[in-house]
Amino acid sequence: MGRFLLGLLACGWLGWASGASAQSAGQVVLEHGTLKDEQGAPVPYEIGTLYVPENRRQADSRLIGVGFARIKSSRSPDAPPVFWLPGGPGLSVLDAFASNDMGRLRTWLSLSQAGDLVVLEQRGYTVRGEKLIGTGTAAPLREPGSVAAAAAAMRDLARAAVAQNPGKDLSGYDIGEFAADVDSLRRALGYDRINLFGGSFGSQWSLAVMRLHPQIVARAVLSGVEPLDNGYDMPSQVYAALQRIAYDADRDPGLRPYLPPGGMMGAVRALHERFAKAPVRVSVRDDAGRAETVVLGAQDLQLALLSHTQDGERWPAFLLSLYHGHYQDWAREVAADRRSTDTVLIGPLVDSSLGVSAEREHLLRTDPALELLGAWNFQANIASAADWPTRDMGDGIRKPVANPTPVVFVHGDWDTSTPIDNTLGLLAYFPNARAILVHRGGHDGAFYQLRHEPAVKQALLEFLGAGRTDGLPSEVALPAPKFELPGFAPPPRATARH
């Protein structure tokens, strides 16, 4: 693949200031630039700022800027535009134009075949407005981590966030306002209906648009799907994804000498039993070369199992390193995390606005995999929900209802961030939906999961542009990956034990 060559006009958009006092609600300010595609042809684009009320429920709300970009389609100018909604929450993407991020630009140019491509950033975390940050307190290194301590820290952060952001109405950052921003930009750009393309939080944001503004959505392609009541993952569904990764890892020739009895899941159980007996003290050196001790406990292990599973190719090497007593890299990561005090606020603000239904919370708290994975995924958010200023959107928004919008769901069965069960549970409510289940697919965008299937990617573009579903399979399989190996030689007797 060739490189993108970026040619920015002297518009100075990166130097945009956040003040919006001279603007009016719904107004957009546009600036222009040109990039070159992989064949060297010039592609014009627009960088813009949408001005919206920070809180639409307050008549005197201040205006804030939300960044967006548009690439007009030369192939399908009459089709509904494709609104690409980023994940996170807390993912800013417009600097892709300046940094020549080929991955994003390639995806966006592909989507512009199906209609105008509009990229909308998130209120409260945008290069064309503000990035809301809260500062908490560092966690101690010499005490094991715990869900209870994390929940207390989140409550403290919630109470401090308002004082740390004077003059800002943090109650205006709920999922309803995010959805309304999409509708405001649609109207400002003169579109009747739009298509949606989003993954992870971008899929949840899209589902909120379809729920609150159903008349404006023509079609959608969603990946790494996060339903409105599924912001907190079910431990047993995450555990099932780990089992699927372990199946291939157990059969990998390079990993075999490191495997204990029972393979990868045997290592999980053995580590659980080891850390249940006593925490581990690990001596590491900080950035200045000073020795320090990090204490790792049973709940730190639970968090490690959740946070190191995003890349299935690397998870086995990490886990087997712990099984064989190589804790230093993990301890350094934990030390850095415990020292980190800054939080992107729109994450907990949006999560607390969606919350969770009582029925799903009961399932979370009684899940059979809770002992192994813990309550890290939900306890801090649920415990602090009342302390955040965003409103609770209620079960009327959270719980799924029938929706006739044509949707293609693309979901990998190695996804440990938004388990594939999320899509399977939604299909009954979308009678005009199709699902593409990707074996060995992780928490990735639709095009990346289908990177080995160019015909299927083209069929997705045909679906977005014209609504056709020809060529859309129900299942694809990625090849088994080349697993990363631990950074040490296999123990002498590991093979015999296995």
The count of strands amounts to 15
Strand residue content: 15-25%
Percent helix range: 25-40%
Name the CATH class of the domain at 5-132 and 169-231 and 397-477: Alpha Beta
CATH architecture of the domain at 5-132 and 169-231 and 397-477: 3-Layer(aba) Sandwich
Amino-to-carboxy terminus distance: 43 Å
Remind me, CATH topology of the domain at 5-132 and 169-231 and 397-477? Rossmann fold
Stretches where pLDDT is under 50 for at least 5 consecutive residues are 1-20, 494-498
Radius of gyration: 23 Å
Query: What is the CATH superfamily of the domain at 5-132 and 169-231 and 397-477?
Result: Alpha/Beta hydrolase fold, catalytic domain
Largest sheet: 11 strands, mixed
Strand order within the widest beta sheet: 1-2-3-4-6-5-8-9-13-14-15
How many helix segments? 19
| Overall pLDDT confidence | 92
Structural class of the secondary elements? alpha/beta
Short overview:
This protein has helices spanning 96-99, 102-111, 147-164, 175-189, 201-212, 235-249, 263-277, 298-307, 315-323, 328-339, 346-354, 358-365, 370-373, 379-384, 395-398, 421-426, 446-449, 454-466, 494-497; strands spanning 5-7, 28-36, 42-53, 63-71, 82-85, 117-120, 133-135, 194-199, 217-223, 280-285, 291-296, 342-344, 407-412, 433-439, 475-477. Helix content is 36%, strand content 18%. The chain has 19 helices and 15 strands.
Describe this structure in words.
The chain is of the alpha/beta class. It has a domain at 5-132 and 169-231 and 397-477: Alpha/Beta hydrolase fold, catalytic domain (Rossmann fold), CATH 3.40.50. It is 36% helix and 18% strand. Strands 1-2-3-4-6-5-8-9-13-14-15 form an eleven-stranded mixed β-sheet, sandwiched between helices. A two-stranded antiparallel ribbon has the order 7-12. Mean pLDDT is 92; it is low at 1-20 and 494-498.
